[in-house]
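Obj: model holo form, ligand = NA7.
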Amino acid sequence: MTTVNAKRVEVLIVGGGFGGMYATFKFREMGYKIQSFEAGGGLGGVWYWNRYPGARVDLPSIDYSFSFSSEIEQEWTWSEQFAAQPELLEYINFVAKRLDLNKHFQFNTRIEHAQWDEGRKLWSLKTDKGEMWEAPYCIMATGPLSVPKDPEIEGLQRFKGALYRAARWPHEPVSFEGKRVGVIGTGSTGIQIVQEVGKTAGELFVFQRTPSFTMPMRNVPLEPDYVAEVKRHYAGIRNAARNSAVGGTRPQSTRGFFTVTPDQRKTLLEDAWKNGGLAMLGTFSDLLVNEEANEHVAEFVRGKISEVVKDPVTAEKLKPRGYPIFARRPCLDSSYYETFNQSNVHLVDLYEQPILEITEKGVRTGKGEYPLDILILATGYDGLTGALTAFDVVGRNGRTVNQKWKDGASTYLGIMMEGFPNLFMTTGPTGPAALANIIRISENDVDWIAELMVHMEKTGQAVADVTPEAERAWMDIVGNLAKHSLLLKAKTWYLGANVKDKPLGLTLFTGGFHKYREYCEAAKQDGYKKAISFVSGHVGRAV
Ligand code: NA7
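Output (holo structure tokens):
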């Protein structure tokens, strides 16, 4: 790759989601000369792209916000317990303006190639505009859910109606009034879309392959008194979040399911259902490791579906079976199951009638054609690894990330990869990415990287690469924990099962965010000696 006319900075940052925003702020404040890139037209990552009707975060807004600035915590006020996408984007833009972040970003710019230059100890990045940038450090804040995935269904391009992708939703409002609408996909995204679009669509056809378990969100407006109380106690709230398994304030019980009587269990589950949110997952300690306990909870939720959905045949089809509850990402809804009681909403069970093709008019299944005006794809992402395998990231000895990960992702803490010196990820694969609050992980990872860079500067090191032993040891920890997890028992993006030919495996740290932080801390203890091999020299500032 030629480096003629390359622009030179000290830290290159790819991605403008929460991770990229915080990295941009942090490294600027440390005095580094930075350049950041974002493929979208603005900041926000997932919340920039996912403007589909009903898009909403499923963690409490109070938790799902930056913790590094007490000024921002005090100045910003959330209006709802679970913020909707427009408010999240407003928050993101508020933070960006407050910290003057936009000026560091090149928007509408994708990185097409990244290469380590061993001789010059630099990363070279090529943008889709043909520009070259170089820096000793490169931060890939490319996110676990940034590469949307179309379904592998023949004829998608033939469809003459309006085709919308949830993860690339237009900025203009879309009307469903009186229209025949189809939605393919019933994960978190599809569920949010269905309950919203069902309100106005003439007819709504929900093409369901695997049903998800969804629980009531019970979203509420946040009362001023409550917000004031939160603002008084943010320090404690953040501390609790950092020391919890999920990186948030959701209680996590240490009580095993079978340690209490059936009556007590029932009461606890009913309470969790009434309280809403992901409370149920924290009601017992063993729901992701004890299959029998898990099945009891699954059956409880199936019972709730029958209580809501009037048509017993539809209710049965909506009931997930054959995989443990919570092994797919548990969804939250406000009226998903109720939507199927409306006469304009129809469940199309793809187990009974698989989709054969998309036609000019609509969707053709084994039982016939469904003519549609609008088709919405909510078919997920090439999660966790997709962003870094979508283009060539070339490390030492010409080895690419694709080559390194051909049998599955391998990293150290989800932050570094052996053979890719001075390249860092935030919320990378084999970290806790999808299982804990992404903002807490991003902050942790950026702070960890920053500390390492300070250490390098103080000790005169130009290059940091994780040792093969440290990476192997981390992967053993991740793998040994995964063996005990019921997450392995569902075909999900957590395992790469939704992408054809992707190596199958649980590339997530399942030990909890608090434990993850302990491993991150431990790496620093002996001056990174066990984890990282350094090459001395001058890097960083004033190049
Ligand atoms: P998910 O959870 O990966 O869901 C994708 C959905 O799309 C899921 O129901 C899939 O069914 C379905 N899908 C994918 N391909 C097809 C085809 N070819 N035919 C029919 N149905 C298909 O993505 P989401 O965007 O909903 O959620 C991603 C994360 O965002 C979520 O986990 C939260 O963390 C937030 P399948 O399960 O493969 O049978």
